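Class prep. Write one:
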Amino acid sequence: LDGVTGVPPMTMNVQSSANPEQPGMDDLVERAVGGEPAAIELLLGRIHPVVVRYCRSRMSVGRQFLATADDIAQEVCMAVLTALPAFRREGKPFLAFVYGIASHKVADAHRAAARTRSATVTCARALAPCCSSATRCLTLSFPVNLLAFPSSAL
């Protein structure tokens, strides 16, 4: 029992997918690095839920991204699979390696979203029907990539 609240502390099942660094993980990683297909499949199955949770927590809710958190998690798993033969423990847990790749992929998604300045607009005149010139309508609408929408198209 907790000395402050008198409630038993919550315990986590060690065998759950919330803890991929469970007993036998080192052996599984070594077998996967060696190229054993069953070990690779099991390893990716253990890290995928953790990677999805990590990506969802790092992707801003209010921002619009070109990829979803699930897409980023899939990219992370593919990158882990690609980098697996070159993995060397070097005193750090395997999950640190995975989180490093995930943080880079999330940062890439944030950069891609920042670079994309175009927005889906049906027509600027529909937003401001009183305008007669395309230039005037563009100034009244929200920022749009002008290279994507030539004024003759409006």
